[in-house]
């Protein structure tokens, strides 16, 4: 690789090399691969933009694991007197006084004053830990698509709302939207034995003490004694219900309530407009039987092509692996079985998504970003069907449900024969395996609304959404929701796989037979994430291989 190309490769990623560092790169045995590996490590480790202004030779050695050796050919000349003084000083017991000329350690931030015990313990996902393996740095020569394949797909789109938007944004649409939500979830809840004969609020008799109700949460507040008072409604009236903090299990469920969700409540009536709650019944999910599968599904999201922090080299390694050209023999065998690739939103970084985003973009045109995405995906084996859903960075309507990425901006992707487009959320059947794809923007609202929920434990967020049977239950917060005539974010049918993204943190959990998968990212930590102390898990790819979860790392 020429000098100019190497410099350009680093410059595109916002990295400047010192002369010493540049010499180490250009004189490496394989300068191209050395440069790629160095970029991946610089962008994935905890380096700030200031650290990348001029990367030193010592930094290169440290990152690449090269031990620094002392040059014994150079010896400082000193006179006998100075040498004797040095020997005397060496044999003199050291005091704890700090020498006057010693450099004072600089405190960068208040965080440096914290003790190790002050830091929150980082959660370790045991399932991911057990399933994880780093893809071996072994590349073989392999000519893809040399022979035509006769792969048969049993691929079906079960839910795609791309062409089902009829809202005009008027009040009547909003009323129809919430009526649809209530009716759908009431239909699920009414199948529970305790709620088969539920009562509407307007039908509560004066002498009726024991209530079984299906309600939508209107507001939540805490009493002066710490009890939860929940204002609820149905299509006939309103009622307030108190959940006492003396009942720990009941109160714990009450603390998970959010506005606009639909629940079942068993209560004792105090007066026509007030009751004491005895039990909260969430719509929930039943355990599903495990289905056999003899193929593999790869899950991606938040690739963010076009961003300066996009890990291009790691993504190229991923493409080499899925093409059976990279990794050890066992890892390539897993790739051979891959039949489907799902990308759950934010394949590109987008334009104007947040203030000053243009400063963090390598490609500043949305069409060119999708063209670049097509260049990458066009290199993937044609016998793998690729399903793409939009996220909040894509050129689709921001309000959920989001229609599929429009051809107007992503024509190059639409020209790929093996690519299918779907809405967010969307449901597909892959040879009988039903996959619910949801980008995951409502995670932001759940973390703010429910105590102890975090982005890091987004597997628990997915579990909570399944229990609520709604992908974005809170209306009017950070997640924009379109008031369609039907609420398409209700989880009508229980999926085999629930796939999300958005938070850039891989998680995996199997809950009641359902695979809960968050597919992480191919982007290093952004400035926004630094502010909120969100640590991404970049270039880690989940694979459901013949029913078993695998987790491959590409850096």
Account of the protein in words:
With 555 residues, this protein is an alpha/beta fold. The chain contains 15 helices and 18 strands. The strands form three sheets. The chain has a seven-stranded mixed β-sheet. Helix 2 packs across helix 4. The longest helix is centred in the first third of the chain and has 19 residues. The chain starts with a helix and ends with a strand. About 10% of the residues have low confidence.
List keywords for this structure.
555 residues; seven-stranded mixed β-sheet; alpha/beta; six-stranded mixed β-sheet; single chain; OB fold (Dihydrolipoamide Acetyltransferase, E2P); Purple Acid Phosphatase, chain A, domain 2
CA-CA gap between termini: 22 Å
| Percent in strands | 15-25%
Q: Strand order of the main beta sheet, please?
A: 1-18-17-8-9-10-11
* Poorly predicted parts: 70-118, 140-148
What is the CATH topology assignment of the largest domain?
Purple Acid Phosphatase, chain A, domain 2
- Major sheet: 7 strands, mixed
Please tell me the total number of domains.
Answer: 3
Count the beta strands: 18
User: In which range does the helix fraction lie?
Assistant: 25-40%
* Shape estimate: elongated
Overall mean pLDDT stands at 86
- The total of helices stands at 15
Question: Class of the largest domain, according to the CATH hierarchy?
Answer: Alpha Beta
Report the structural category. alpha/beta
Gyration radius, in Å: 29 Å
Report the CATH architecture of the largest domain. Answer: 4-Layer Sandwich
């Amino acid at each position: 690789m020429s000098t100019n190309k190497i410099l350009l490769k680093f410059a595109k990623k916002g990295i400047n090399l010192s002369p010493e560092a540049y010499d180490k790169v250009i004189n490496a045995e394989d300068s191209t691969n050395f440069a790629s590996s160095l970029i991946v490590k610089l962008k994935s480790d905890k380096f700030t933009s200031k650290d990348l202004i001029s990367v030193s030779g010592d930094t290169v050695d440290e990152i690449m694991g090269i031990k620094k050796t002392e040059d014994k050919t150079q010896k400082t000349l000193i006179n006998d007197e100075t040498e004797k003084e040095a020997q005397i000083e060496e044999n003199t017991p050291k005091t704890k006084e700090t020498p006057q000329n010693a450099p004072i350690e600089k405190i960068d931030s208040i965080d440096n004053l914290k003790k190790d015990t002050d830091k929150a313990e980082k959660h370790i996902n045991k399932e991911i830990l057990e399933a994880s393996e780093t893809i071996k740095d072994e590349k073989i020569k392999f000519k893809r698509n040399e022979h035509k394949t006769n792969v048969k797909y049993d691929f079906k789109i079960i839910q795609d709302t791309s062409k089902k938007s009829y809202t005009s944004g008027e009040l009547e649409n909003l009323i129809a939207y919430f009526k649809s939500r209530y009716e759908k979830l009431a239909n699920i809840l009414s199948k529970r034995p305790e709620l088969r004969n539920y009562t509407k609020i307007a039908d509560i008799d004066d002498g009726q003490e024991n209530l079984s109700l299906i309600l939508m949460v209107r507001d939540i507040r805490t009493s002066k004694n710490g009890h939860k008072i929940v204002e609820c409604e149905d299509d006939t009236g309103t009622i307030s219900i108190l959940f006492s903090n003396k009942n720990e299990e009941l109160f714990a469920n009450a603390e998970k309530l959010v506005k606009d969700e639909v629940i079942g409540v068993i209560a004792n009536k105090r007066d026509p407009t007030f009751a004491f709650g005895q039990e909260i019944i969430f719509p929930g999910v039943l355990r599903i039987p495990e289905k056999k599968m003899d193929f593999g599904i790869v899950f991606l999201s938040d690739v963010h092509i076009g961003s300066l922090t996009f890990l291009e080299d790691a993504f190229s390694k991923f493409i080499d692996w899925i093409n059976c050209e990279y990794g050890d023999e066992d890892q390539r065998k897993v790739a051979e079985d891959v039949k489907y690739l799902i990308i759950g939103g934010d394949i590109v970084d987008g334009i104007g998504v947040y203030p000053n985003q243009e400063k963090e973009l390598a490609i500043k045109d949305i069409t060119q970003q999708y063209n670049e995405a097509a260049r990458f995906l066009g290199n993937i084996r044609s016998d793998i069907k690729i399903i793409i859903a939009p996220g909040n960075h894509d050129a689709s309507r921001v309000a959920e449900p989001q229609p599929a990425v429009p051809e107007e901006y992503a024509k190059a992707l639409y020209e790929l024969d093996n690519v299918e487009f779907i809405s967010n959320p969307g449901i597909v059947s892959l040879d009988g395996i039903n996959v619910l794809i949801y980008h995951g923007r409502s995670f932001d609202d759940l973390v703010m609304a429910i105590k102890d929920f975090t982005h890091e434990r987004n597997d628990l967020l997915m579990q909570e959404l399944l229990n609520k049977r709604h992908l974005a239950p809170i209306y009017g917060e950070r997640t924009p929701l379109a008031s369609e005539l039907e609420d398409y974010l209700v989880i009508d049918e229980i999926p085999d796989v629930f796939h999300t993204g958005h938070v850039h943190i891989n998680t995996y959990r199997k809950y009641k037979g359902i695979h809960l998968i968050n597919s992480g990212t191919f982007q290093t930590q952004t400035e926004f994430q630094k502010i909120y102390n969100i640590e991404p898990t970049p270039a880690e790819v989940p694979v459901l291989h013949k029913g078993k979860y695998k987790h491959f790392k590409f850096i």
